[in-house]
Amino acid sequence: MPSYGVIRAGLEALYFSGAHHALGTMFGGVGAILTMHHVRPARRDSFQPNRILEIEADYLDAVIVHLRRRGVDLVSMDEVHDRLVSRQFDRRFAALTFDDAYLDNLQHALPILKKHGAPFALYVATSFPDRLGELWWVSLERVIANTERLVIEIDGVSRFFHVASAGDKMSAFNEVYWWLRGFEDEDRLRRTVRDLCARYGVDPHAACRDLCMDWAQIGKMAAEPLCTIGAHTINHPILSKWPAEKVRTEMKRSVEVLADSLGQQPEHFAYPFGDASAADAREFEIAEKLGFKTAVTTRPDVLRPEHGERLMSLPRISLNGHFQAVRYVDVLMSGVPFALQRALGGKAA
């Protein structure tokens, strides 16, 4: 995986060379779905492995202003569906989406969205407002942040990580995170993180309580006319690691819980994690059979006309906390970085 420095250099090269503009008519598609998680002030911590999931409110504000100045229509997910199905492509469009229902979305994102009258979708994993969810990637961050020496059994061998510096902590986090993501059994993944939390004094449910909205706060968001509530499963699992019937139950039950709790039936879905290793053809078929209007991945790409026939596997472009420059939005929405990725052997969205 390229470093953030390499990615940034590539974005800068495409922007300042004008290649994104010259090739955008070929690869820019008809619009895009932008995905975000946290919107909050920058943290000062030197160790922030999950920073990719955080943007600042001023950046969100600047992106909205910039897109509208570029003549891009900001639309709801219902409108994304309708434009793709009806092939209404006379104007480029973008949808703003937020995953996991973090409290900072209410505190920092909502005022900006209301100021600009910008529609948005909020995808809710229902165990989070129930305070039963496990944001295990945050728990892993907290374990490593709170120690200078980490011991973990990896593939039957005890591994010792000296994690006194921020760089050492980051290296350890990346190795352990991707080792966990490689488990075929997600129950094993979660047991491993719970064990780490127990040994290093971290409450595995604290991140959920600290960071996520409760039902009353989600209800406040849902009451906003600009807001579309979408389903995001119950437990935020890596669906590809679960049996098909359990996947179906996670999707279906999350809709039922949201409908019971908020009085509105979600018609849109976001796959947790959402990359090709987390959701693929089986999950897309289940989502379609459950009757969702759209289902979004995190596979990076713009929307193209053919996505009107692939509504259960829509790509999204992440607004990444490491690349908070408005000019990068132009580059990403040109579609050129994703076309280059496909040309180099990356999987198409």
User: For the CA atoms, what is the radius of gyration?
Assistant: 20 Å
**Helix count, DSSP H or I runs of 4 or more residues:** 14
Q: Helical residue percent?
A: 40-55%
Secondary structural class: alpha/beta
CATH superfamily caption of the largest domain: Glycoside hydrolase/deacetylase
Largest sheet: 6 strands, parallel
State the total count of DSSP E strands.
12
CATH top level class name of the largest domain = Alpha Beta
CATH architecture of the largest domain: Alpha-Beta Barrel
Structural account:
There is one protein chain. With 349 residues, the protein is of the alpha/beta class. The longest helix is centred in the C-terminal third of the chain and has 19 residues. The protein is built from 14 helices and twelve strands. Helix 1 crosses helix 13, helix 3 packs parallel to helix 5 and helix 6 runs parallel beside helix 8.
Structural features:
TIM Barrel; 46% helix; 6-stranded parallel sheet; 349 residues; 2 domains; 14% strand; two-stranded parallel sheet; alpha/beta
Brief characterization of the structure:
By secondary structure, this protein is α/β, with parallel strands linked by helices. It has 14 helices and 12 strands. The protein has 2 domains: 4-133 and 207-343, Glycoside hydrolase/deacetylase (TIM Barrel, Alpha-Beta Barrel); 136-204, no CATH class.
Topology record:
Layout: H1 4-17, H2 19-27, E1 31-36, E2 38-39, E3 54-55, H3 57-69, E4 73-74, H4 77-86, E5 93-99, H5 103-116, E6 120-124, H6 136-145, E7 149-154, E8 157-162, H7 166-181, H8 186-200, H9 206-211, H10 215-222, E9 227-231, H11 244-262, E10 268-270, H12 281-289, E11 294-296, E12 317-318, H13 326-333, H14 336-343
Parallel strand pairs: 1-5, 1-12, 2-3, 4-5, 5-6, 6-9, 10-11
Antiparallel strand pairs: 7-8
Helix pairs in contact: 1-13, 3-5, 6-7, 6-8, 11-12
